[in-house]
Amino acid sequence: MKIIRVPVPGDPGAMRLDELPTPQPGPGQARVRVHAAGVNFIDVYHRTGLYPGELPIVLGREGAGVVESLGAGVSNLSVGDRVAWTNVAGSYATHVIAPAERLVPLPEALSFRDGAAAMLQGMTAHYLTQSTVQLSAGDTVLVHAAAGGVGRLLCQLAHRAGCRVIGTAGTPAKAEAARAHGADEMILYEEVDFEYEVRRLTNGAGVSVVYDSVGRATFDRSLRCLSPRSTMVLFGQSSGPVPPFDPQLLNKLGSLYLTRPTLFHYTATRAELLARAGDVLGWVADGELRLSIDEELPLERAADAHRKLEARQSSGKLLLIPS
Questions:
Q1: Residue 174 C-beta-side C-alpha neighbours within 13 Å
Q2: DSSP structural state of residue 128
């Protein structure tokens, strides 16, 4: 098998394409031939050591493929099944060993590329809009990085819930892409201060929810965009981690709520995983939720995918395709 590993945390050049013996699945596991792997910012955090892990670091947490072999005790899968997954380490590879309970059926109507593009970002948008905050018709929400992979899906699901969606983006082209996916208003953050513009667009009232995957560069102003008793959802840190702050600030700005959720805790049981994945994959298959695949790269160009992601040159999903 071929796999991308990182001997020592570092920049994209630290990534290596290694060849290893193809492993056999243990009890409760399945070996899957990877047909497509998703590239996500969490992979950058693992590569750089921001999220520490055992060395050498194996990258990738998302993909889709075909079950090749089963370990003892696996009864919910068969060899030849088409499956998709997230939160399975080592998915930048030709083969992955996965806990059978973390694999979900991939509908025949969807390609492996669709499956790899939908799982992490799609279920993230699902839990953020369905569980972390239960959006209601008439809510106004702010979505940072609205033209990104999660951002476009958040715009669609918030729009689907009847919300007014305000998004931020860096370029006019990205702003138009976000509008095409459900954003009602777009703010070009390089041309205007988004805090001022949110207040202007809401007649000073502020928004019900801020979805912030940017972190350090946006956090303080995002809090000031909220109306009293509203919620700040910090689910990423593409600009760096948020520095410590006094929680009294939440009181001062209007008894605000702050949460820092992660997908793993919202798919902790197989029942919840199947329910969320079933919704997302079903909506994609039915055309109710549109995926945006920006580029497909061969596995050996994983470093290029990370460079593009970190430079914010992607608009939509990046995939790796093992040969």
A1: 23
A2: I
Q: First vs last Cα of the chain: how many Å apart?
A: 11
Query: 214-239 burial string, b = 16+ CB within 10 Å, else e?
Result: bbebbbebbbbbbbeebbbbbbbbbb
The residue-averaged pLDDT of 153-181 equals 97
What pLDDT does residue 312 have?
Answer: 81
Full domain range(s) for residue 172:
137-260
In angstroms, rounded to a whole number, what is the distance separating the alpha carbons of residues 32 and 84? 10
Taking the C-alpha atoms of residue 195 and residue 32, their distance in angstroms, rounded to an integer, is: 46
Confidence of residue 307 (pLDDT cuts 50, 70, 90): very high
112 and 180 assigned to the same domain: no
217 lies in a domain? Answer: yes
Q: Is residue 266 part of a domain?
A: no
Q: What's the number of domains the chain is made of?
A: 2
The answer to whether residues 194 and 88 belong to one domain is no
Q: Which of 260, 283, 313 is the last residue of a domain?
A: 260
DSSP notation for 54-92? PSSEE---EEEEEEEEE-TT--S--TT-EEEEES-S--S
DSSP state of 114: H
Does residue 154 sit in helix, strand or coil? helix
Same domain? For 57 and 144 the reply is no
State the sign of the Cα–Cα–Cα–Cα dihedral 284, 292, 150, 5.
positive
CATH code for position 62: 3.90.180.10
- pTM, two decimals, is 0.93
- For residue 41, being part of any structural domain is answered with yes
Write 11-18 long-range contacts (CB < 8 A, 24+): 11/48, 12/47, 12/302, 12/303, 12/304, 12/306, 12/307, 12/310, 13/303, 14/47, 15/47, 15/59, 15/302, 15/303, 15/306, 16/56, 17/299, 17/300, 17/302
